[in-house]
C-alpha cells in the first residue's frame, strides 16, 4: 500500500514536470514570436516616419505654389491658381539659406517641362533655362513628390511686353529617416 | 493451471495499462501539434498582412487638376490684335473658327500645342506608370476637341476644369490610365 502511494506520487511528480516543461516550451515559443514581430514593427517605425514625411511633402507640394514666396499674385492680371512667378524664384534662390528650415523639406526644385529644358538657371542664362534649385540640402532624401504649376514671367516681345506662362513641375523631397 | 490463469490476467492488465498510457501520450502529442499549427497560422496571417502593404506611387487627382489649371494658363504661339493668347483664349478662338495673325488656323495651333504639352507631361510607354490618357474639350455638351493616347486600363484617375469665355461655357476633361 505504501509502495503504491509512493509510485503514484512519483507518477504525479512526473506529470507535473511534463506539464511544466510543456508550459515553458510554449512560453518560449510565444516570446520568440513576440520578439520577431517586435523587431519587424520597430523596423516599420522608421518606415512610418519616412511615410509621414512623404505625406507631408505631398500636402506641401499641392499648396506651396500658392504661398506668397512663390505665387504670381496679381502680377499677371487676375489672381491665378498654381502660378509661380519666375522672377520671384530667381530672388528666392539666392536667399534660400534664410529659408533652410522654413518648409521642413530638404529639396525644392522647379523644372520646366513645356518647353522641356534641363539647364540650371543662373543670373547669366535667365530666362533661357529650365531648372531652378531653390533648396538643395546635402542630406539623404526621399524621392521627389511633384505637382504641375504655371511658371510665368514678363517677356519682351517685338513691340510689347506680355505675360509668358510655361508649364513646370514643382518638385519637393524630404529627409529619408529609414 | 491457476498460476497460468493468474499470469494471463496480469499480462492482460499490464497490456491494457500500457495501451492507456500510449493513448494519453498520443493525445498530448496531438495537443502540441494543434498548438504549433495555430501559432503557425497566426504567424502566416500576420506576415501576409505585412507583406501585402504596397506603396502608392500612382498619380493623384490633385496633380491632374493642377495640370489642367497650368495648361489653360500656358502662353501659345497664336497672336491676335497684338496680343499673345493663353490656351484658354485659344480654345475660345478655335471654337469661333478664328485665325491667328500669322495666318495659321487657331485650331491647328491648338492641336499642336496640346499635343506638345500632353506628350511632355504624360509620357506613355511600357516602362511608365501611365499607360494612356484621354483628353477632351467640351463646349455646351458638344465635344470640340479630343485626343487619346495609349490604352485604357481599369485603374484611372481624372479631373476637369470649367471656364467661361465670351459667354460660352467650356469644360476641359483629362483622364489618366495607369497600370
Hey, roughly how much beta strand do the residues of chain A contain? 15-25%
N-to-C series of helices and strands of chain B: HHEEHHEEEE
| Helix and strand sequence of chain A | HEHEEEE
Shape of chain A: rod-shaped
Query: How many structural domains of chain A?
Result: 1
Global mean pLDDT of chain A: 84
Number of domains of chain B: 2
Largest interface: A-B, 36 and 26 residues
Helix content of chain A: 25-40%
Alpha-beta content class of chain A: alpha+beta
Major beta sheet summary of chain A? 5 strands, mixed
In total, the number of strands of chain A is 5
Numbering strands along the chain, what is their spatial order in the largest sheet of chain A?
A: 1-4-5-2-3
Let me know the average pLDDT of chain B. Answer: 84
Share of helix of chain B, binned? 40-55%
Number of helices of chain B: 4
- Tell me the major beta sheet of chain B: 4 strands, antiparallel
Q: What is the helix tally of chain A?
A: 2
Question: What's the architecture of the largest domain in chain B in CATH terms?
Answer: 2-Layer Sandwich
Q: Which CATH C-level class of the largest domain in chain B is it?
A: Alpha Beta
Radius of gyration of chain A: 32 Å
Q: Please, could you describe this protein's structure?
A:
The complex is a heterodimer of chains A (178) and B (179). Chain A is α+β, with helices and mostly antiparallel strands and 178 residues long. Chain A has 2 helices and 5 strands; from the N terminus they run αβαββββ. Chain A has one domain. Chain A has a 5-stranded mixed sheet. The N and C termini of chain A lie far apart (71 Å). Chain B contains 4 helices and 6 strands. In chain B, the strands form 2 sheets. Chain B has a 4-stranded antiparallel sheet. A two-stranded antiparallel ribbon of chain B has the order 1-2. The termini of chain B are far apart. Classes of the chains: A alpha+beta (178), B alpha+beta (179). At the A-B interface, helix 1, strand 4 and strand 5 of A face helix 1, helix 2, strand 2 and helix 4 of B.
